[in-house]
């Protein structure tokens, strides 16, 4: 039996709800589907492995809806294809129609705009990139920033999912910081 000191209990009482949710999410993500399946098999050994009576009907209904949507899309594309072939008198493939339908957001450029964009691209390619040394951010500075951002987000009622993402990023930065503090072996200096 393990006895806890009073300070440990006091510390554990100060955890915030968002920390508890964060730890629960991490614990849940570490549980694999195979582990759940094996646990249920031990609890309910008479249940067949691949059969789930609740999933049979909804999956067939979902499959039928998907097939109907695909058929409707094919019919619409064929109708557009036939109409364009009648108007222009050329053979237009369904692939061309799909490209036209999916490329609605592209802007139409004039000849001068096309020429200017090509010239600027050529000028950018001809310029040699400056090889300035990029300063790396120190791990301590990153951790300080994460703590400040987390405090600000908590005080300003940011959504929980954003705070959890920041905590996960902070955890990654902490791991990198601890790895950087680890003493290197002589073999690490001679790696190719």
From TrEMBL:
Full protein name: Uncharacterized protein
Biological source species: Henosepilachna vigintioctopunctata
Organism lineage string: Eukaryota, Metazoa, Ecdysozoa, Arthropoda, Hexapoda
